[in-house]
Amino acid sequence: MNAKEFREFGKAAVDFVADYLENIRENDILPSVEPGYLLPLLPKKMPETPEAWPEILTDINRVIKPGITHWQSPNMHAYFPTCISYPSLVGELIATGYGIVGFSWICSPACTELEMVVMDWLAKFLHLPKHFLHEDDGPGGGVIQGSASESVLVAVLAAREQAVRKERENHPEMSESDIRGKLIAYSSDQSNSCIEKAGLLAAIRMKLLPADEDLIFRGATLQKAIEKDVAAGLIPVICIATLGTTGTCAYDDIESLASICEQYQVWLHVDAAYAGGAFALDECAELRRGLDRVDSLNFNLHKFMQVSFDCAAMWVRDANNVVDSFNVDRIYLKHKHDDQTKIPDFRHWQIPLGRRFRALKVWITFRTLGAEGLRATMRKHIDLAIQFERAVKADKRFEVVAPRALGLVCFRAKGDNEITAQLQHRLMERKKIYMVKAEHCGRLFLRFSICGMDPKPSDIEFAWTEIETQLTAICAEDQVNARKAGDITDLSHHLTGLQLTNETLRR
User: Fold this and answer.
1) 417 catalytic, yes or no?
2) How far is CA 380 from CA 9, 314, 338, 375, 451, in A?
3) What pLDDT does 299 receive?
4) What integer pLDDT is reported at residue 505 of this predicted model?
5) Among residues 52, 115, 268, 413, which one has the fewest Cβ atoms lying within 10 Å of its Cβ?
6) Mean pLDDT calculated for residue range 130-154
7) Between the CA of residue 193 and those of 190, 200, 246, 310, 429, what are the distances in Å?
8) Which of 298, 300, 309, 222 is nearest to 266 (CA)?
9) CA 475 from chain center: how many Å?
């Protein structure tokens, strides 16, 4: 493909994507295919000769689109949002066109320095403590990771290595393997699965402590666990708190957790993958309490900042703790500006060596939408969730099971769990909207999250009509089944009566 053909294909692809996003509501949210549907539709080998791009674009509609779950549809209400925007898509295109692998400053100075700029912009937008800024005199700063999972794993690994070094200094009589075998980490049983996975990957015990009845993880619970483990000879390493838990978007008590972590010299990381965006809103200022006392935190830009996946922001109070843990230098990675300490080589802040130029799409998105536009997007999600919550509360057949938090409403049909399970099953079968189940204290409920590229009040009305209509159908079917069961019972009683009458006559 030459440049002329690329221009033609590229323009056609842009039109394809724009048409898809403009008309996304016309698609069922979930695909109607079975596992393995794609395999017989495609050749077993790659083509020997080049194929024309119009044929390929046609096949995307024919073969690929039927197997797509439409994440940017406003009828997506499962999980948390992964919002894109047109400016972000343009940023992806240009960054991909540059094709750089920015693991060090010399590999593309703009890649490193633009990341420093946008991470400081974002930190100020979110009102984060000054020590998380690159422009500050301290050793802290921000970096763009691929996901919250990577951010959490980086924090766990860095905390682990710092703990091992400290214990070897304080207890030279202990072997490194003995020390590593005693390390333990903590989080809440409401935390995301990536935290448990980080413990597995880091080969460190991750203890998931029970949140309180209101689903909040507090310092008192952490203190009891640490005291017990220290008495048993274990070495506490890190506590991972959550602002915006996956199940109900609960907010852990960062202040009380920080007090315990400071007392026992335990690294405190905050996973704010979803709720972190709300730090920018004055009406949500309470969420920022205690952030000046944490060692690291992460927030997914692809949830609220309208930046396409993957793009997760991570800040550390002291970057040296991360760099010292991950620094592996080879001669081919060195350059003459290595001694410029205020310009980081971000390969030391992450798991892989290679780095994509993610900062470009962030920069283009921020400039195109502005802080005003980003705040408006978050407030729109909150307003739409309030609209849905009001609909739930107005219908006596439903109940809200947790306080609405940002763009998430957790609700259920009153009565046995089976009713809510049936409702979710019917909705999944119809494929008009998509929600997932969750459970707490034996109660099954549904999570309704505001998602999609451009959700509107009419989308919430559509979703609510779908939900309440299907519950009405379930109730009607239950009544019919109950009547049938009653008729069978009456017939059984009648037959029993006849049998008794016959026996009497015989006597």
Assistant:
1) no
2) 36, 25, 45, 9, 11
3) 95
4) 45
5) 52
6) 91
7) 9, 11, 9, 18, 27
8) 222
9) 34
